[in-house]
UniProtKB/TrEMBL annotation, chain A:
Residues 323-427, 460-518 are annotated as: Disordered. It is found in: Cell membrane. It comes from Nannospalax galili. One of its GO terms (cellular component) is plasma membrane. This is Interferon alpha/beta receptor 2.
TrEMBL record, chain B:
GO terms for cellular component: extracellular space. Its main location: secreted. This is Interferon beta. PROSITE patterns: INTERFERON_A_B_D (PS00252). The gene is LOC103746144. SMART domains: IFabd. GO terms for molecular function: chloramphenicol O-acetyltransferase activity; cytokine activity; type I interferon receptor binding. It comes from Nannospalax galili (Northern Israeli blind subterranean mole rat).
Length: 518, 184
């Protein structure tokens, strides 16, 4: 009975032990389930931080994420996950505050993930102090006979395994000159925090020096040297300006000061008189205004704009009938004058006084020539030189000139008055002066003009008839003295230009738009 | 005559003391260099890491507190540790695939260090005998017996050797700290 009890107790104890062991090992991560991949791991101190980096040799895996675990060899502890290196994309991890025991073996385990699935793991063994120390960043500034080497350290340098970095290695600044290496073992009794400047003095000017900085650990085979930085010490290379440059600047300043003071003195004594009265051509105050200024007022010249009016071809109605007949005529009808010339009117408009000097001068010549040639009655081309007369003035009170002007105004269709302002209504006539005579009425013909003017006045209601009332002497008439001046006037008309050739013949021909050659 | 002998004895003691002081300084330099060399050689004995056979061998805590030891005490401890490390690596390591040359270099470095230490320890053999029975030495011996038994139980497997190698490497920082006692 007692033996049965013992057997059952032992069996139960074994069972408990088995359960305990299975639970104990069951909770630990089963790292042995995954196949170990080959990884290249490096433990380095970069900028005073303990960095573990790895690289998967099997490129077919190409993991996207990594998770880092670690454990130690001295104790059978379960691997611990590194919090700041969980599911990372960069194949490196900062273990400065994670690995704190100096004398031990660390087993880093890197799990390789592709997406959400684990594709493998890497495991390695590192003795705690089996690391490389990368050199610090530095800058060099060269002077005449010395070089300033500024080492860039972080403001706060963390401890590695609870120790300062100088307990692991000494800082060395290597100076190379003509392949002769001279070491300046710093052995700084200070913390490597903040920037530090070391001066390499007693150097030879006009010489090229190369400097390299590195940490030298106990194992000299683990030295990592920084890239060499070289600088040439120029003879006059000093901080700031050289003495000669300073003297030059001072002398130049004195010369300028002397010059200015002499100028002021001469001016004060009156030896130099500075005038502000510039010639007009150098006066640019109103330069812009003068650019857009109106042209100087030219001579008072009346301008006459000849406006082409379409006239139907009509046979000359020799009927000198009453007004009713004339009223039926909607178009201009050339009227025969007493002299026998057939005149046709070219509508004129009194423009504002002298808008265009060149044009006005030319037109004035035309007007003058027209005036000179119009020594026969019947033709009328009055250059209105005066202002427009008051339309409400009674006709009898007006001067002949005013009345002529009135005729011009009245004969001008009001509905075209606005259109005449438009450039489209301006027509330039090319007239063969050999076939066209211009006649300008003088004052003696005012009596003859008056009826024509009255007619025009009476025909105010019919603008078309008014147009026809203004006639110009057209026809062949030779006036050599005036021909030259009239030739300056170029009247262009679309229809007449075609007819001018035909008008060159001596035969009477209807040139189309009322021009009749004689 | 008697006075001459006394004078010579005194001079010999002075010089020996001086010689020993100089030797301790030199011993410290040699020992520090030797410890680094041994660690480098052990690091060259690369083994695939394994987690299954890890064990806590319980390194004696007393030897971790180096401040209580005098120069000769430290020398005794260093000598004992080097001797036992030498003994561990004389076991079968064929399963590890280690380069035998590296192991032989390790043996040579360990031997050189022990020879330098024995030069000092032979001075006063009665003190050495007393140290052989001290508790620190007994605990240290027990520690290295555990290492030997572990290798034997694991049939000198590569994983067991990896664990032992890692444990041995933990000894050398302690040796380096004991070496610092030579400047006391």
């Amino acid at each position: 009975m007692f033996s049965n009890y013992n057997v059952s107790a032992i069996t139960l104890l074994n069972l408990y032990l088995m359960v305990y062991v299975s639970v104990l090992f069951g909770t630990s991560p089963t790292f042995s389930e995954y196949s170990d991949e080959s990884c290249t791991m490096n433990l380095t101190i970069q900028n005073f931080q303990l960095i573990l980096s790895w690289e998967v040799k099997n490129r077919s895996i190409q993991p996207t994420h990594y998770t880092l675990w670690y454990t130690i060899m001295s104790k059978p502890e379960d691997p611990k996950i590194v919090g700041n290196c969980t599911n990372i994309t960069k194949p490196s991890c900062d273990l400065t505050d994670v690995w704190e025991i100096m004398d031990d073996h660390y087993i880093p385990i890197v799990e390789l993930y592709k997406g959400n699935s684990m594709v493998g793991r890497c495991m390695n063994s590192f003795w705690a102090s089996d690391f490389y120390i990368e050199p610090p960043r530095f800058e060099i500034v060269g002077f005449l006979d010395h070089i300033n080497v500024t080492l860039e350290f972080p403001s706060v340098t963390p401890k590695i395994y609870g120790k300062e970095i100088q307990e692991y290695a000494s800082l060395v600044i290597e100076k190379q000159w003509d392949k002769i290496v001279k070491l300046n073992d710093l052995k700084l009794n200070r913390d490597f925090s903040g920037n530090f400047t070391y001066i390499l003095d007693n150097l030879i000017p006009n010489t090229n020096y190369c400097v390299s900085v590195y940490f030298e650990p106990l194992d000299v085979e683990k030295i990592i040297k920084s890239p060499i930085k070289c600088i040439f010490l120029q003879p006059d290379q000093e901080s700031g300006l050289s003495i000669s440059a300073k003297i030059g600047i001072i002398i130049t300043g004195w010369i300028v000061l002397f010059f200015i003071s002499s100028i002021l003195m001469l001016r004060r004594t009156g030896y130099i008189c500075l005038k502000n009265n510039f010639p007009k051509v150098l006066n640019f105050h109103n330069f812009l205004a003068s650019m857009f200024a109106e042209p100087p007022p030219s001579e008072a010249v009346d301008m006459l704009e000849i406006i082409h009016t379409n006239k139907k071809k009509k046979l000359w109605n020799y009927s000198y009938g009453d007004e009713s007949d004339s009223e039926e005529e909607e178009e201009e009808v050339p009227k025969a004058s007493a002299t026998g010339y057939t005149t046709h009117g070219l509508m004129g408009k009194h423009l504002s006084q002298a808008p265009d000097p060149s044009a006005s001068s030319q037109e004035s010549q035309c007007e003058d020539s027209a005036v000179e040639e119009s020594d026969e009655p019947g033709a009328e081309l009055e250059p209105p030189r005066e202002a427009r007369p008051d339309p409400w003035q009674p006709e009898s009170s007006r001067s002949p000139r005013e009345r002529r002007e009135r005729v011009l105004q009245d004969s001008y269709p009001r509905h075209n008055s606005s259109s005449t302002d438009e450039p489209g209504d301006k027509v330039i006539f090319n007239v063969n002066l050999n076939s066209v005579f211009l006649r300008v009425l003088d004052d003696e013909e005012t009596s003859e003009v008056l009826p024509l003017a009255e007619d025009t006045i009476d025909l105010e209601e019919d603008p078309h008839r008014i147009e026809s009332s203004l006639l110009m002497a057209s026809g062949e008439r030779t006036q050599p003295p005036h021909h030259s001046s009239s030739s300056q006037c170029l009247w262009t008309e679309e229809e007449s230009s075609d007819k001018t050739d035909s008008s060159g013949s001596d035969t009477d021909a209807d040139v189309g738009d009322g021009y009749i050659m004689r | 005559m008697t006075n001459g002998c006394i004078l010579q004895t005194l001079l010999l003691l002075c010089f020996s003391t001086t010689a020993l002081s100089i030797s301790y300084k030199a011993l410290r330099l040699y020992q520090s260099s030797g410890s680094v060399t041994c660690q480098e050689l052990l690091l060259q004995l690369n083994v695939r890491p394994c987690l299954e056979d890890r064990i806590n061998f319980k390194l004696p805590e007393k030897i971790k507190h180096q401040q209580q030891f005098k120069k000769k005490d430290a020398a005794f401890l260093i000598h004992e540790m080097l001797q036992n490390i030498f003994s561990v690596f004389t076991n079968d390591f064929s399963s590890t695939g280690w380069n035998k040359t590296i192991v032989e270099n390790l043996f040579g470095e360990l031997h050189k260090q022990m020879d330098r230490l024995e030069t000092i320890l032979k001075e006063k053999p009665e003190e050495s005998l007393a140290w052989r029975n001290s508790m620190a030495i007994l605990h240290l011996k027990s520690y290295y017996r555990r290492l030997q038994r572990y290798l034997k139980d694991k049939e000198y497997s590569s994983c067991a050797w990896m664990v032992v190698r890692a444990e041995i490497m933990r000894n050398f920082p302690i040796i380096s700290k004991l070496t610092d006692c030579f400047q006391n």
